[in-house]
Amino acid sequence: MTRQVDLPQGALEMLILKAVSLGPLHGYGILLRIQQISGERLEILQGSFYTAVYRLERNGWIEGEWGESENNRRAKFYRLTATGKRQLKTETAKWSDMTSVVAAILQAEPEEI
Fold this sequence. Notes:
With 113 residues, the protein is of the alpha+beta class. It is built from 4 helices and 3 strands.
């Protein structure tokens, strides 16, 4: 069984933006896409997830439009806005920078200091 990982603060919104950038999805579909891409290693609480989705919509980074889901239920389908694409690019660059800095620190040897 693969061990689940905790999601660092601030990463959820970036993951939602990325999931939506792959194509429009309704809210629960976004959550499932993130879990699928993570290999089921991320467990995201629905309360935290939907709070983040609403915040992204309020910021204008995603837009929702009502439609019908695959099981014939009314659902709001989200897509990335132009502002959201720029935000995803910015957040991805910041995340990459931060992970490379942390990786360098973790790989440091005493004789290198």
